[in-house]
Amino acid sequence: MKCYLRQLTCVVSVLILLATASAGVIDEKKVKVLAIQELRKSFGDRVRLVGVRVFISKPISFTGIERKSLNVREGEPRGSFYLYLRTKRGLRRITATLDLRWRCAVLIAQEDIARGERVFPWQVGYKEMYLGRCPRKEISSTEELINYIALRYIKKGERVKKSFLKKEPLIRRGDEVDVVFRKGALEISFKGKALDTGFYGDTIRVKSLNTGKILRGRVISEEAVLVK
């Protein structure tokens, strides 16, 4: 009988311990830790918490955590975290506003780019930075940058923003161009006249200055069109 009572006492003690394991006192620092945990769980290392404001005037005693709720939209610089606590006076909600930074891939100048100069792929590179909002990917690749000129001087190491650039075609209608024909190891080039305006990768019509024949080719540089 004594053995049974000891076992029963032990079980009750464990249950009490489990029931009170999440109880205690919570303050601003602990709310911040819980907010970071929820952010990590939802977004991993894609986000950083750089500021938090917890709306409690003093530490709160609680008997347990009812639930945690994160109101964050990926890519937005602001969000909220809600913590619901069980207290002796009933359910208590704590609100925290979050100041967030998101991991973004941004274009960085690898060398100085002069105003009015066409931007070439080797002059820029992608770098990961944490920003409040990631820039929209209006330029899908560094290769596409050849379609743009700099509207202002861009210093080495500076972010290359879309507002710094202006889209300009590589070839305009009426320009004299090099028409390049490639087939395997064979390459032949001759002069032609552009009959269309085109950006990098566009297919335009060109007229051979030698034969007058009209061909179609892809714009590959400021002065060249590749035909097959």
Quickly describe the structure.
The chain has 228 residues and is an alpha+beta fold.
Would you give an account of this structure?
This protein has 228 residues and is of the alpha+beta class. It folds into three domains: 25-102, no CATH class; 103-167, Antifreeze-like/N-acetylneuraminic acid synthase C-terminal domain (Type Iii Antifreeze Protein Isoform Hplc 12), CATH 3.90.1210; 176-227, SH3 type barrels. The chain has helices spanning 2-20, 28-43; strands spanning 24-26, 47-54, 60-62, 64-71, 78-87, 90-109, 124-131, 148-150, 165-167, 176-183, 186-194, 203-208, 214-219, 224-227. Strands 2, 4, 5, 6 and 7 form a five-stranded antiparallel β-sheet that branches. The longest helix is centred in the first third of the chain and has 19 residues, at 2-20.
